[in-house]
């Protein structure tokens, strides 16, 4: 895990190495200062030697200034290194997530991935800064101070040896009991992010059904869970301070008692040496204090680090073959004994023994009830998921033989959940083709029946779209997404219920434009309205993950009961609405 994380330090290795160097040099001066102070007391103040006081005072001043500079530099380089490390972590995690299949993302959940890229990375960043600075400083400070203390007086220095096991045992207990609680806290953070994400995405539904109080209660409940779990973990971590204070005051008490005895009774210790011992004692105990702070930070960051490494180690379910095909011959599609399960479980199939052959340029309509696996069927064509059994062929080859980018460049999808990004209308449309000219953009917008409402905006095609496309209507959003897909000039176009928010006349105009402008493109249209697909070359009726019937509109009215019932119910509803 550590090796995996450190690989993200990258170009910030210099700052990461310079920080411990600055810390080590600062510590050398910190070790010299108490010795100079002892000499200042014994040879300057007690002997009333003004010249010695000035000389040693000057040395102390210079050492203090240099130590201050080195401390500031170590803080600066540590901050740069940790911030750069966190930046690389986020960048590499985001790049890794871009390679994930839908299956990978389903396993983590989007809310969990957001937590890992924000809260978890921040925890690791803070821990890294502490480690390269404090974790270097504390052991060195402790070691040097202990050596200097033993140099001054071995008997007094044995006090530290007696106190250390108590402190070490206390720290071990804190780490042992706190880590599982922090793991629980971050799992609850995932739930918190999920609730916030759902609420913001469905804010219109929440307000329409006047469910603000319910959503607030949901948030309060998970927020309370975080409070309870985090408080419990922090209560354990809080034992760090009293344990440390006990060790500090015990050392100071014993030093004062034994030191006074050695000065007054034995005469084997000078006043300056006792002052130096107090100074080294504080440095030893402060180094242990800093070490305990690092331990607390590492306890918190350990769970975060494990969650980050989980993302970095995750491999996509989808892989390019060794020698991938780099060209899709045409838009023909074939399903051969296809079985598919989202859980990769042969007992829980979304699609079962599906066989279908579609010629290049054919217009295929797909209809079926909710949960009949209409979307599952078409998502296998651009290999958003891999089949559990069987094969899906495009252009005469199994989709698993193609380079993923090549395959998806030839397939355009307009999904059920239409997504626009913040930016102008032009910038959104050029997601389909970044090199598209203004003429190309206007042409596809006319096909998608989007040009008319775009021209009504004051800034026309330079109109800004807010995040998620919240400043345009559902129908406008769908037409913009259709135009974006057309701009790609695909061999296969998939429209998954993507005209549900437009009226029947606009829907008919879009379909007429598609037939006229892209006659060679294989088109799949999933729809709830029969009017949207009745003029298709063939219509597929789906039920419970299986193809229930295939044929033209007229053929299915005669041969397929499900299609006939849907048609009758829609015709009846249309007739009533007309009255």
State the CATH class of the largest domain: Mainly Alpha
Q: How far apart lie the N and C ends?
A: 69 Å
**Unreliable spans:** 575-579
- Strand percentage, roughly? 5-15%
- Helix count, DSSP H or I runs of 4 or more residues: 19
| Oligomeric state of this protein | single chain
Short account of what is shown:
This protein has 579 residues and is α/β, with parallel strands linked by helices. The chain has 19 helices and twelve strands.
Give an overview of the whole structure.
The protein is α/β, with parallel strands linked by helices. It has 3 domains: about 1-315, ABC transporter transmembrane region fold, CATH 1.20.1560.10; about 325-410 and about 490-500 and about 520-579, Rossmann fold (3-Layer(aba) Sandwich); about 415-490, P-loop containing nucleotide triphosphate hydrolases (Rossmann fold, 3-Layer(aba) Sandwich), CATH 3.40.50.300. Helices cover about 65% and strands about 10% of the residues. The protein has helices spanning about 1-5, 15-45, 50-100, 100-110, 110-150, 155-200, 205-210, 210-235, 240-265, 270-315, 375-380, 405-410, 425-430, 440-445, 450-455, 475-485, 505-515, 555-560, 560-579; strands at about 335-340, 350-360, 365-370, 390-395, 395-400, 410-415, 425, 465, 490-495, 520-525, 540-545, 545-550. The strands form 3 sheets. Strands 6-9-10-3-11-12 form a 6-stranded mixed beta sheet. Helix 2 (about 15-45) packs antiparallel against helix 3, helix 14 packs across helix 16 and helix 18 crosses helix 19.
